[in-house]
Amino acid sequence: MTAHEPTASVRDTAEAIATMEIRGAATIAGAAAEALAAQARGIDPDSPEAFCASLRAAARTLHETRPTAVSLPNALRYVLQRMDGRDVETLRRNVVDAVEEFVDQLDRAQTDLGRVGANRLADGDTVMTHCHSTDALACIEAAVEQGKSISAVVKETRPRNQGHITAEQLRDAGVPVTLIVDSAARRYLDTVDHVVVGADSIAADGGVINKVGTSGLAVNARERGVPIMTAAQTIKLHPETLTGHTVEIEMRSESEVIDEDAREAIGDISVENPAFDVTPPRYMDAIVTEHGQFPPESIVTLMRELFGEGAAEPWAEP
Ligand SMILES: O=C(COP(=O)(O)O)[C@H](O)[C@H](O)COP(=O)(O)O
């Protein structure tokens, strides 16, 4: 291994993110930051420049895994912007400290936004969920901690069934759960009081990028008069959208949609598997963050406050 190559720990984390063993925007962000700390601890470069080059290379490897959750480049940027010092030991300490600080903030932000989201829920409410979002779960769990009785209708979320994880975690939190197939969502909207989803990225216009199926759910919720909120800590704000960039939607393998036998039996068709979609701001009632709740159209104000006019690549040299 040359000094610039990612350590095994970075390669393992990158592989786990790409294969979705580590998944969900907040979890990916925490794991990527921890991998940078492992890289900082695990190398013995002969100069401060070599240390920085090695950390930047690790950040690139981690960034190349999945394209949609902006929490990943935001996490890398947070750590690399604090990579400061004239000697290797100082640089190492600053990176490790920055990672600890980042992970602390991640946990605190989730707890804080959970309380905000919980205030939108009333005793006796039933909520509908899509996919598995730790930020969305934080709202429901905080409502339960406030002593409210909450039930959940959980969409299974094809093709990877992350709804099963949500169902299990809600059950563990004492929330009665009804699991449904995705296509039953509109029918069950008549029985729920709120829809709560997470986000992988939030664009400057207030568009919410989340697991595919969120936008259809939001349109149906509006048609049924059911309020829908996105629970998203501010590392989900996508700074590059401030300067006109769009968010890349990850396309995943067709093998997640159709198994080999069925594929062979059907023959010559094409299969597409987008992992995310964009919910226009007019179909979302609120974005709940650790700084309070926002109408989607006003999120740009918070984005400017936190990111200025945009952001450079995480590995850009200062
Ligand atoms: O869309 C997903 C996960 O998609 P995937 O399973 O493809 O990663 C989640 O709703 C967001 O990432 C938010 O999660 P969190 O609130 O935990 O950050």
UniProtKB/TrEMBL annotation:
An MF annotation (GO) of this entry: ribose 1,5-bisphosphate isomerase activity
EC class (word): isomerase
This enzyme's EC code(s): 5.3.1.29
This protein's record includes keyword NAD: no
Residues reported in the UniProt entry to bind substrate: R23, G24, A25, A26, R66, N210, K211, K236
InterPro entries: IF-2B-related, IF_2B-like_C, Initiation_fac_2B_a/b/d, M1Pi_N, NagB/RpiA_transferase-like, R15Pi
Catalysed reactions, as listed in the record: alpha-D-ribose 1,5-bisphosphate = D-ribulose 1,5-bisphosphate
Catalytic residues (UniProt): C131, D200
Sorted UniProt keywords: Carbohydrate metabolism, Isomerase
GO biological process annotation, one example: pentose catabolic process
Keyword Zinc assigned: no
Top-rank lineage group of the source organism: Archaea
Role of this protein: Catalyzes the isomerization of ribose 1,5-bisphosphate (R15P) to ribulose 1,5-bisphosphate (RuBP).
Entry similarity comment: Belongs to the eIF-2B alpha/beta/delta subunits family. R15P isomerase subfamily.
HAMAP family linked to this entry: R15P_isomerase
Note: Reaction proceeds via a cis-phosphoenolate intermediate.
Protein name per the record: Ribose 1,5-bisphosphate isomerase
Highest classification ranks of the organism: Archaea, Methanobacteriati, Methanobacteriota, Stenosarchaea group, Halobacteria
